[in-house]
Protein backbone atom coordinates (compact mmCIF):
# COMPACT_ATOMS: atom_id res chain seq x y z
CA UNK A 1 0.00 0.00 0.00
CA UNK A 2 2.78 2.48 0.86
CA UNK A 3 4.47 1.80 -2.47
CA UNK A 4 1.27 2.81 -4.23
CA UNK A 5 1.22 6.13 -2.31
CA UNK A 6 4.84 6.84 -3.19
CA UNK A 7 4.13 6.11 -6.85
CA UNK A 8 1.06 8.35 -6.82
CA UNK A 9 3.08 11.20 -5.30
CA UNK A 10 5.80 10.79 -7.90
CA UNK A 11 3.25 10.78 -10.69
CA UNK A 12 1.64 13.94 -9.33
CA UNK A 13 4.74 16.09 -9.86
CA UNK A 14 4.04 19.38 -11.65
CA UNK A 15 3.63 19.20 -15.42
CA UNK A 16 4.99 22.73 -15.83
CA UNK A 17 7.96 24.54 -14.35
CA UNK A 18 11.48 23.43 -13.45
CA UNK A 19 10.46 20.03 -12.09
CA UNK A 20 8.44 18.98 -15.12
CA UNK A 21 11.26 18.23 -17.54
CA UNK A 22 13.65 16.62 -15.08
CA UNK A 23 11.50 15.12 -12.38
CA UNK A 24 13.94 16.38 -9.77
CA UNK A 25 15.41 19.71 -8.85
CA UNK A 26 19.18 19.85 -8.60
CA UNK A 27 21.28 22.95 -8.12
CA UNK A 28 24.04 23.67 -10.59
CA UNK A 29 25.72 26.48 -8.73
CA UNK A 30 29.42 27.17 -9.11
CA UNK A 31 29.90 25.81 -5.60
CA UNK A 32 28.79 22.33 -6.60
CA UNK A 33 31.18 22.29 -9.53
CA UNK A 34 33.97 23.26 -7.15
CA UNK A 35 33.84 19.77 -5.62
CA UNK A 36 34.77 16.66 -7.57
CA UNK A 37 35.65 13.02 -7.03
CA UNK A 38 39.12 12.00 -8.15
CA UNK A 39 38.89 9.21 -10.75
CA UNK A 40 42.52 8.03 -10.89
CA UNK A 41 46.14 9.15 -10.57
CA UNK A 42 46.22 11.09 -13.83
CA UNK A 43 42.94 12.82 -12.93
CA UNK A 44 44.52 13.82 -9.60
CA UNK A 45 47.57 15.15 -11.43
CA UNK A 46 45.46 17.16 -13.90
CA UNK A 47 42.81 18.54 -11.56
CA UNK A 48 44.71 18.88 -8.27
CA UNK A 49 48.48 19.10 -8.76
CA UNK A 50 48.23 21.18 -11.97
CA UNK A 51 45.30 23.31 -10.79
CA UNK A 52 45.77 27.08 -11.05
CA UNK A 53 43.47 27.42 -8.02
CA UNK A 54 44.11 26.16 -4.49
CA UNK A 55 42.64 22.71 -3.86
CA UNK A 56 41.47 21.10 -0.63
CA UNK A 57 41.90 17.33 -0.85
CA UNK A 58 39.58 15.27 1.35
CA UNK A 59 40.96 11.74 1.83
CA UNK A 60 38.01 9.72 3.13
CA UNK A 61 36.43 6.26 3.17
CA UNK A 62 32.84 5.04 2.91
CA UNK A 63 33.12 3.20 6.24
CA UNK A 64 34.50 6.24 8.13
CA UNK A 65 31.95 7.86 10.47
CA UNK A 66 33.84 11.14 11.03
CA UNK A 67 34.33 11.44 7.24
CA UNK A 68 30.55 11.48 6.81
CA UNK A 69 30.37 14.48 9.13
CA UNK A 70 33.42 16.37 7.88
CA UNK A 71 32.83 15.92 4.13
CA UNK A 72 29.51 17.80 3.88
CA UNK A 73 30.77 20.53 6.25
CA UNK A 74 33.82 21.08 4.10
CA UNK A 75 31.82 20.99 0.85
CA UNK A 76 29.44 23.64 2.18
CA UNK A 77 32.28 25.99 3.12
CA UNK A 78 34.09 25.45 -0.18
CA UNK A 79 30.84 26.21 -2.03
CA UNK A 80 30.56 29.51 -0.12
CA UNK A 81 33.94 30.53 -1.58
CA UNK A 82 32.36 30.49 -5.05
CA UNK A 83 35.18 28.85 -6.97
CA UNK A 84 38.15 30.50 -5.25
CA UNK A 85 39.09 27.09 -3.83
CA UNK A 86 38.36 23.66 -5.31
CA UNK A 87 37.70 20.47 -3.37
CA UNK A 88 38.88 17.04 -4.48
CA UNK A 89 37.46 13.96 -2.78
CA UNK A 90 39.71 10.88 -2.71
CA UNK A 91 38.34 7.56 -1.46
CA UNK A 92 41.35 5.80 0.09
CA UNK A 93 39.92 2.35 -0.65
CA UNK A 94 39.72 3.16 -4.37
CA UNK A 95 42.97 5.15 -4.53
CA UNK A 96 45.36 3.50 -2.10
CA UNK A 97 48.34 4.64 -4.17
CA UNK A 98 47.45 8.33 -3.64
CA UNK A 99 46.88 7.75 0.08
CA UNK A 100 50.33 6.18 0.36
CA UNK A 101 51.99 8.87 -1.75
CA UNK A 102 50.54 11.64 0.45
CA UNK A 103 51.25 9.72 3.69
CA UNK A 104 47.62 9.38 4.74
CA UNK A 105 47.62 7.12 7.79
CA UNK A 106 44.14 7.92 9.12
CA UNK A 107 40.88 9.29 7.75
CA UNK A 108 39.64 11.87 7.42
CA UNK A 109 42.85 13.58 6.30
CA UNK A 110 42.56 16.93 4.55
CA UNK A 111 45.38 18.50 2.56
CA UNK A 112 45.56 22.09 1.36
CA UNK A 113 47.41 22.26 -1.95
CA UNK A 114 48.62 25.30 -3.79
CA UNK A 115 50.65 25.21 -7.01
CA UNK A 116 50.98 21.44 -6.63
CA UNK A 117 52.49 21.60 -3.14
CA UNK A 118 50.95 20.60 0.19
CA UNK A 119 50.87 23.82 2.21
CA UNK A 120 48.74 22.67 5.15
CA UNK A 121 47.14 19.51 6.51
CA UNK A 122 44.92 18.21 9.28
CA UNK A 123 43.68 14.82 10.42
CA UNK A 124 40.32 14.25 12.07
CA UNK A 125 37.17 16.27 12.38
CA UNK A 126 37.03 20.05 12.76
CA UNK A 127 34.21 22.47 13.53
CA UNK A 128 33.09 25.07 10.98
CA UNK A 129 35.16 27.91 12.49
CA UNK A 130 38.34 25.84 12.29
CA UNK A 131 37.51 24.82 8.72
CA UNK A 132 36.88 28.44 7.69
CA UNK A 133 40.26 29.46 9.12
CA UNK A 134 41.91 26.55 7.29
CA UNK A 135 40.32 27.61 3.98
CA UNK A 136 41.04 31.34 4.41
CA UNK A 137 44.77 30.59 4.65
CA UNK A 138 44.53 29.15 1.11
CA UNK A 139 43.02 32.21 -0.56
Automatic annotation (TrEMBL):
Keywords attached to this entry: Disulfide bond, Electron transport, Redox-active center, Transport
Single GO biological process annotation from the record: cell redox homeostasis
Domain Thioredoxin: 24-139
Pfam families named in the record: Thioredoxin
GO molecular function: protein-disulfide reductase activity
Keyword Lipoprotein: no
Top-rank taxon, per record: Eukaryota
PROSITE patterns recorded: THIOREDOXIN_1 (PS00194), THIOREDOXIN_2 (PS51352)
GO CC entries: mitochondrion
Entry's family note: Belongs to the thioredoxin family.
Protein name as catalogued: Thioredoxin, mitochondrial
Organism: Certhia brachydactyla (short-toed tree-creeper)
Lineage of producing organism: Eukaryota, Metazoa, Chordata, Craniata, Vertebrata
Encoding gene, per UniProt annotation: Txn2
